[in-house]
């Protein structure tokens, strides 16, 4: 039985496609990230991930791009 991914939502200050592209590239390199959906218009990043990509690991990856994380939450986490 495969592990169900958790979903994390981040509100990230992104002003252009270069910003969102940097975030997307960083997240897609992270082992365990199964999907990344970025909306430049709403400045949101929705990430689906399994271990070892925990909420804190994903949050740190976004922070390392230099973008400000305005809000973050775990949307759905399977126990």
How do the helices and strands line up, and which of them pair or pack?
Layout: E1 6-12, H1 17-28, E2 33-39, E3 44-49, H2 55-63, E4 69-76
Antiparallel strand pairs: 1-3, 1-4, 2-3
Description of the structure:
The chain has a 4-stranded antiparallel beta sheet with strand order 2-3-1-4, covered by helices on one side. It is globular, with a radius of gyration of 12 Å. The model has no long low-confidence stretch (mean pLDDT 94). The protein has helices at residues 17-28, 55-63, and strands spanning 6-12, 33-39, 44-49, 69-76. The relative contact order is 0.33. Strand 2 (33-39) and strand 3 (44-49) form a beta hairpin. The protein contains 2 helices and 4 strands; from the N terminus they run E-H-E-E-H-E. Helix content is 27%, strand content 35%. The two termini are 14 Å apart. It has a single domain (6-76), classed as Alpha-Beta Plaits. It has 79 residues and is an alpha+beta fold.
């Amino acid at each position: 039985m495969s592990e169900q991914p958790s979903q994390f939502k981040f509100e990230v200050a992104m002003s252009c496609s270069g910003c969102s592209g940097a975030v997307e590239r960083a997240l897609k390199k992270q082992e365990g990230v199964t999907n990344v959906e970025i909306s430049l218009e709403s400045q949101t990043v929705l990430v689906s991930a399994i271990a070892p990509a925990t909420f804190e690991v994903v949050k740190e990856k976004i922070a390392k791009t230099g973008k400000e994380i305005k809000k973050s939450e775990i949307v759905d986490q399977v126990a």
